[in-house]
Write a structure and sequence with these properties.
By secondary structure, the chain is an alpha+beta fold. The chain is built from 26 helices and 14 strands.
Length: 656
């Protein structure tokens, strides 16, 4: 259970070494840039620094991508490539300009042709829709008593327009529907023209000028002429695409290499966002995991020998109000449960990471409440299928697989398979016959988890050097002793175990003494431990103690749900079996019985499985986390080779 130690690394060096330094930060994949405004508080020094926030390679990557777009191909995935020191920004701009000059002309011409073709298609549709009428585009465009709009919008937005136009002085004429769009002719009175335009803009109406359409209709057979022009435009667009494809085929390797180089430098400059520059020197700051500093410093010394590294420890930064990012380090098994913790809140920096404890307790609780061999197998297979189809996240799928294995294990302990008992003998207990034992184990688990939460809170107070709360607080050592004493008395009275009057008086006296210690917690810390600060008043402490006492009772009782849901699972399974037996004597009873058993077991797995999952989260979040966990951490987000939605892992980046 580890929240990794972080350090703030600041690098200062000549401008010529900025790109090599940033490139190494990308390759390590463990550097989160930090704005200089946060670390540099000196106004006179800050005023001398110029800060760059734009990435100059964004435009270059966009330009080089037009090669594949004009050719009608998909832009390739960038590949890790070696970037030499000669590949500077000015050199990259020159290469892109040489490559894209001809393509820019082709792309501009293609866009013009596409726009003209769209106008021609609109003209053809207009003529076909209004053929046989006395209205033409010129007459409608020059109408004195009505203003006309022609164009298309999506079918959904057309319905919205129809609803909005009911109370407006407009006439909406649907012409035709094509490719999910509705072509329409909208007519309004002259005084309502501007309002109609705003209404059409709101529903994303694509308008075509009737005067432009009229200009396309020349000759004796205007429709045939329009069709011929459309064909010519399509031929020209295909010709441009062919020319681009030929160019791409001849120089594909060079273009793909240049694209990968530009992409790499784009990621490099993502690291450089927020850097400072002054007198030919660069200043770059960010967070790195402490255990990577030795490797980074060695690499920087080789690649950028004139760059100086400065490290600030987190204990020096935390007091200045800067939020330190959190990076968790767990093995593969526990890592899957980090998302369960993050659903509540990510640990703040320096806080205890509960992921390993959550992993073990979550699996235990789920299996305890949903113990069944057959249903566990169904959850396991279902999780595999959902992950494979991309419906369920891989980490959640791993959690559900572990939970299903626990379910199968407890199914063996209970002797239950698809809710049928007796097929396999129970190894531990039978939930329906050993209810008292089931309840006792549930409450015992609750006492253990609550005690563990209090112990973790004590560790937290020890790290914070708040020894007063560690020893005398209701959630410290005094609270733990009080809780154990109350649990012991409760167990004695519930079970009817013999206890001497002296022992009982001693335990009740200890309870009273512990309550007094908690009431005067801050006074004891000030005079016994010499701890500074006034603390809270004893009256407030008294209310806090009352809250803690009620919390101890309610949290412990809440773990009874472990036994309740274990019994509930048996009850639901028996209900499905009884219902299937009831229809067995009917015509086609065997088939109906099979259908009921299949549907019933699916309902149990889906519905009750979800309920058990939620109840397990509740036990973790409220009964356990409430004793020690604060959360509120900010995730460590380093800049690496893999971009958002990218396909390359850190292992690929290390080949650069």
């Amino acid at each position: 259970m580890a929240v990794m130690k972080m350090v703030a690394l600041t690098m200062i060096g000549p401008q010529s070494e900025m790109e090599p330094v940033a490139r190494q930060m990308v390759l390590t994949g463990g550097f989160q840039p930090l704005p200089l405004d946060i670390l540099i508080n000196d106004r006179s020094l800050r005023s001398k620094l110029t800060t760059e926030t734009e990435n100059p390679y964004d435009e270059l990557v966009s330009k080089i991508s037009t090669i594949w777009k004009v050719a009608g191909e998909v832009v390739p995935d960038p590949q890790p490539v070696t970037i030499t020191k000669d590949f500077t920004l000015s050199h990259a701009r020159m290469l892109v300009e040489q490559t894209s000059r001809r393509l820019q002309v082709w792309e501009q011409r293609r866009r013009v042709l596409v726009e003209e073709e769209e106008l021609l298609r609109a003209t053809k549709l207009f003529v076909e829709a209004l053929s046989g009428t006395e209205f033409g585009p010129r007459e409608l465009a020059e109408g004195r008593f009505a203003k006309t709009f022609f164009g298309y919008l999506s079918n959904e937005n057309f319905q919205r327009l129809m609803e909005s136009g009911e109370e407006s002085p407009i006439a909406i004429n649907e012409l035709t529907v094509s490719n999910g769009n509705t072509w329409a002719l909208i007519i309004t009175v002259p005084g309502y023209e501007e309002s109609t335009k705003k209404l059409l803009e709101a529903v994303y109406f694509k308008e075509f000028s009737l005067k432009d359409i009229a200009g396309q209709l020349d000759g004796e057979d205007p429709l045939a002429l329009v069709e011929k022009r459309i064909e010519n435009h399509q031929r020209a667009i295909r010709g441009l695409a062919k020319a681009a494809k030929d160019m791409l085929r001849e120089h594909r390797a060079d273009y793909e290499l240049l694209f990968s180089q530009l992409y790499t430098m784009q990621r490099v400059y993502d690291v450089c966002k927020g850097r400072g520059e002054v007198s030919g020197m660069f200043v770059l700051s960010g967070w790195i995991p402490a255990d990577t500093y030795a490797e980074i410093s060695k690499t920087i010394a080789e690649e950028a020998p004139m760059t100086t590294l400065m490290v600030e420890e987190t204990q020096d930064i935390s007091y200045s109000g800067i939020r330190i990012p959190t990076k968790l380090k767990n093995n593969a098994f526990f890592r899957s449960f980090q998302d369960i913790v993050a659903m509540y809140s990510l640990p703040s920096y320096g806080e205890i990471d509960p992921s390993p404890i959550v992993a073990i307790s979550f699996i235990l609780f789920f299996g305890f409440m949903f113990g069944d061999v057959g249903h566990g197998i169904m959850i396991f297979l279902g999780s595999m299928m959902l992950v494979k189809r991309g419906i369920m996240r891989r980490s959640l799928g791993q959690v559900m697989k572990m939970a299903s294995i626990s379910s199968m294990f407890f199914g063996l302990m209970y002797g239950s398979i698809f809710g049928i008992e007796g097929v396999i003998p129970e190894i531990w207990l039978n939930p329906m016959h050993d209810v008292n034992k089931l309840l006792a184990v549930s409450i015992g688990l609750g006492v253990f988890m609550i005690s563990l939460g209090l112990l973790l809170n004590m560790i937290k107070q020890y790290r914070a050097k708040d020894f007063g709360r560690l020893l005398f607080d209701g959630q410290g050592l005094a609270g733990l002793a009080l809780y154990w004493t109350l649990c012991a008395l409760g167990m004695i009275y519930i079970t009817g175990s013999p206890i001497s009057e002296f022992t009982a008086d001693l335990m009740w006296g200890a309870i009273g003494l512990l309550i007094l210690v908690m009431i005067f917690r801050d006074i004891l810390a000030r005079y016994i431990l010499r701890q500074k600060g006034d603390g809270e008043s004893p009256v407030l402490n008294l209310f806090e103690i009352m809250h803690n006492l009620m919390s101890f009772v309610s949290n412990t009782a809440s773990f009874v749900r472990l036994a309740a849901f274990a019994l509930n699972h048996v009850g639901l399974s028996l209900a499905v079996i009884m219902l299937s037996e009831m229809v067995r004597s009917l015509p086609g009873g065997i088939v109906m019985k099979g259908i009921i058993l299949i549907i019933g077991n699916l309902v149990i797995v889906c519905l009750e499985g979800l309920m058990v999952f939620i109840q397990t989260l509740r036990l973790e979040y409220y009964e356990f986390f409430g004793k020690f966990y604060k959360g509120g951490g900010s995730a460590f987000k380093p800049v690496g080779w893999k971009k958002e939605g990218g396909k390359f892992s850190q292992a690929n980046a290390e080949d650069l």
